[in-house]
Amino acid sequence: MAPRRRIQDGDPPQDAVEELQLVNVEFDQAGGNNVGAQAPNMAPNVDLGEAVVSLRQMMEENRKATEENRQMMVESRRLIEEARAMAHQLNCQVDCLNSCVDRRLAQLFELVNKNTNDLGELRQLLNKPVLQTRALSSDGRDFPNLESENVNLPSNGGGRGEQPRPVNSTPPVTTTVPTPQRVNVGESHATSSKIHVEQPPPRQGVA
Q1: Whole-model pTM?
Q2: Residue 76's pLDDT is what?
Q3: Parent domain of 102
C-alpha cells in the first residue's frame, strides 16, 4: 500500500474526512485499538492523534462560524423588529397629522363659509333703502322721524338741558305786562306798555 500523506491544516474538510476514513479502515484491519499506536502495515507518516486534533479544530472553527452566523441572524432580526416599530410609529404619526390637517381644513372651510354668509348679509343690508331713522334725546325720549319734512328739531340737536318742543302748540298770545313809567310834572296817570310774545306755530309731523 502506498504511503499516505499527512493531514495538513488548511486542507478541504472533505479531503480530511476521506483521508481519516481510510485511516480508520486500515487501523481496523490491522486490529489496533489505540489511537496513538501505529499499525504494522500502515505508513509511518500517518498520525491518528494529529488527524483527530485537526478535525476537532475544524469543528471548533465551524462552530464559531455558526455562532457568529446565529448572532448575525439575531441582530438582523432585532434590526428588522426595530424597523417595523419605527414604521408603525411613523404610520401613527402620519395618521395623527392627517387627522389634524382634516380638522383644520374643516374649521377653515367653516370660517370661510361664515365669512361668505356675513358678506352676503352685509351686501343685502347695503342694497336695502334707508327706511326710518330715530334718535334719542339726552333724557331717553324719542325725537320725531329725522326724515320727515315737516319736523323742525332744536337748533342744538336736543342737547342736555333742552326739552324738545311739543308737537301741538297754542296760537300766539298777546300778554299785557304793566311797567312803571316815569311821571312828568303835570301828568298824574301811569301808562302801560304791551309786550307781544310769539309762540311757535304748531308742528305738522308725527312724533
Answers
A1: 0.33
A2: 95
A3: 13-109
In-domain check, residue 38: yes
Angle formed at CA 176 by CA 172 and CA 178, multiple of 5 degrees: 155
CA pair distance 195, 41, nearest whole angstrom:
175
Q: What is the mean pLDDT of residues 63-69?
A: 93
Cell numbers representing residue 161 in the block: 338741558
Helices (H), the chain: 13-30, 48-127
Q: Which residues of 165-204 are buried (b: 16+ CB within 10 A; e: fewer)?
A: eeeeeeeeeeeeeeeeeeeeeeeeeeeeeeeeeeeeeebe
Residue 200 located in a structural domain: no
* Distance in Å from the first CA to the final CA of the chain: 147
Q: Are the beta carbons of 143 and 137 closer than 8 angstroms?
A: yes
DSSP state of 10: T
Residue 195: beta bridge partners?
Answer: 175
32 versus 49: which is more confidently predicted? Answer: 49
pLDDT at 126 over 60: yes
C-alpha to C-alpha distance for 132 and 119, rounded to whole angstroms: 23
